[in-house]
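ARCHIVE CARD
Drawer: 12
Card no.: 0347
Subject: one protein chain, sequence and derived structure
Cross-reference: see card 0346
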Amino acid sequence: MIIADMADGLTRGVERLGAGVSGTFFEPTIRIGVTGLARAGKTVFITSLVANLLARDRMPGLAAAAEGAIRTAYLQPQPDDTVPRFEFEDHLAALTGPDPHWPDSTRSVSELRLSLRVQPSGLLSGLSGPRTVHLDIVDYPGEWLLDLGLLEQSYDEWSARSLARIEGREAAAPFRAALDAAPEGRWEEPDAQALARAWTATLEARRREGGSDLSPGRFLLPGELEGSPVLTFAPLPPETAAARGGLRREMARRFDAYKTRVVKPFFRDHFARIDRQIVLVDALGAIHRGPAAVEDLRRTLADILGAFRPGRNAWLSRLLLGRRVEKILFAATKADHLHHTQHARMAAIMEALVADAKSRADFAGARTAAMAIASLRATTEDQVPHEGGSLDVVRGILAETGRRAAFHPGELPQDPGRLLVPARQGAEAWLDGDYGAMRFAPQPLSLKPGEGPPHIRLDRAAQFLIGDRL
C-alpha cells in the first residue's frame, strides 16, 4: 500500500511537471474555478462568459477584446477525460431560446475548454504571430468548497461548531429530537441513519432559508455516495469519555473517512490545480433575509478563503510545487435587480463582507477584488412616480407568474456598516427598513451577429480574472 501510494504520488508529480512545462513554454493554460453559494448563478455565469468571449461585442471592459487582440475563440474538448463536459450549448439554448428559462443548478464537477488566439502586444508584437491561450473553466458546487474547511477540523471541533450554529433555530428542531432519541450505549445502524437523515433535513431547511454554511456539502449532493456509511454521520454533543464501540466513536470514524475518501480526492484532483477563482454570492438575497443571514454569509466567505492556497503563481514554483490561486474575485450577482444608482453601494457591501478574508489573501500574495455583476441582464431600468417624486425601479418578468412587474428592493445604505454592524451584534431585523427580493425570469433576446447575451460588468470580471494573461 505504501509503495502504491508513493508510485501514485510520483506519477501525479510527473503529470503536473509535464503540464507545467507545456503551459509555461508553449500554449499557456489558465485554469479558472467557478463556484458559489446556493442560487448564486454559477451555470449562468459560465454560459454567458463563454458566449461573450465567442462573440465579443459586449466586452469593452476586457482590454484584449476592446483592442482586437483576440483574433478568434473556439471550444475544444476539455483535457480531463474523466470529468463531464459543461453543457454549454444546452444552457445557452435555455437562456436565449424562444422560451427562455434558467438552466438547472450545478450538481457536480464539470469542465469546459475555451481556446483564444491572441496577438501579443508590446515591443515584440511585430516579431511573432498570434499565440493560443487555453481557458479551462471548472464548475463545481459551492457546498463542496465549504467542505475543504473540514480538513483542518477534528470531529469534536466540527460537532461543536455545527451544533452552535443551529442553536435556537426552528429548522433544527427535528434534529434535536433525533439527538434526544439517540441511544447512549449500544447502538444499531438504523440509529446512525436516523441521525444522518435528520442532519441532512436540517441542512436542506437551512438552504431553503438562505443559510450559507451547509457542510458537509455532499449530504445535499450525494450522487453515487447516497446511503453509504461515509455519508451517514452527524454532529453529537461532547461526552466525558466516548465508549469504545459507542456511537460517538463511530461517528468520528465516519467523519474522518469522509475527509479522506471524499474531500481530499476533490482537493487533489480539481481544486489544487486552479489558478484563478471566482466566488459568486447572492448578497442581495442575504440582505433580504435579514441580519442573521448576512452574518452567516460573512463568516462563510471568510471560511471559503481559508480553503484556498492563495499566492503568486511564479512559473518555477508552479513547476516544482504545484499551483497556487493567484487571483480571487468575489462577485455579488443579480446586480440587474438594482437600479444602476445602487450598484456602487452593493459593491461596497460586498467589499465589506469579504474584508477579513481579503486581508489574509492579500498578505499571502494573491490579488482579490469584489464587484457587483449580472451574468445575464433580465431587467430594464425605469422610474415611477412616488410620493410626489420619482422612484428608481427595474422591470422584468416574474419567474413564478410570468407577469411583468416593477421592483424597488429598498435603498441600500452608503455605509456598509449600517448592515454589517447589526448583523454582527445579532439584531433580529434591520433598523432602517426592509429590503425586498424578487426572482425574475430571463427575457426574450434578439442578438445581433457578434453579440453575446446582455450583462452587467461581466467584461470587467473577465479583465480581472484573465486580462493580464491575454
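Annotation on reverse: The chain has two domains: 2-140+271-378+445-469, 154-266. The chain has a mean pLDDT of 85.
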